[in-house]
Backbone:
């Protein structure tokens, strides 16, 4: 477990919202998803999916949760942010092979922070936990996708990552 003081009012690390620097801070613990987290995690993930106007059936929640907490499945993983015993954020990430590299890469699939704690560094702390987990596995590349309309998240992503020129297609 990592305890993080999520104060983002630093010269280079400040985030700007509508022309003002955010000065909110909070203290959260970032830790791996655990067996007893199912109900709270499900509520957070459901809120994330609703933001993107989608949903999944209960068996997907149950299967995904089981995979992410399994010691045998090292590909699918999750961290949660906890504040005062309540889950307030999540990140799902997947290690997978890449045909252009010898080492695996890491896909950060889902990132969600409860609305009342957005802007105080919880999302950044969750991403940095994925970076640390990737570094521990000698995985140098972490990538993710977001919707073009998700401007608050993109402000964070522009600071903590690099935009690529790729456009996603799917069947």
Residues:
């Amino acid at each position: 477990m990592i305890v993080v003081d999520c104060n983002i009012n630093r010269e280079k690390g400040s985030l700007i919202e509508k022309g003002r620097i955010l000065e909110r801070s909070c203290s959260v613990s970032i830790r791996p998803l655990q067996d007893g987290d199912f109900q709270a995690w499900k509520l957070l993930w459901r809120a994330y999916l609703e933001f993107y106007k989608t949903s999944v059936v209960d068996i997907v929640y149950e299967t995904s949760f089981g995979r992410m907490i399994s010691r045998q499945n090292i590909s699918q993983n999750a961290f949660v942010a906890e504040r005062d015993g309540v889950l307030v954020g999540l990140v799902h990430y997947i290690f997978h092979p890449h045909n252009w590299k010898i080492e695996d890469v890491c896909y950060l699939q889902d990132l969600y922070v409860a609305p009342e704690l957005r802007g105080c560094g919880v999302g950044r702390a969750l991403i940095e936990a994925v970076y640390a987990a990737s570094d521990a596995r000698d995985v140098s590349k972490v990538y993710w996708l977001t919707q073009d309309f998700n401007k608050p998240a993109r402000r964070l992503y522009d600071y903590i990552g690099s935009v690529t020129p790729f456009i996603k297609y799917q069947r």
The longest helix spans residues 122-136. The chain has a mean pLDDT of 88. DSSP finds four helices and eight strands in the chain.
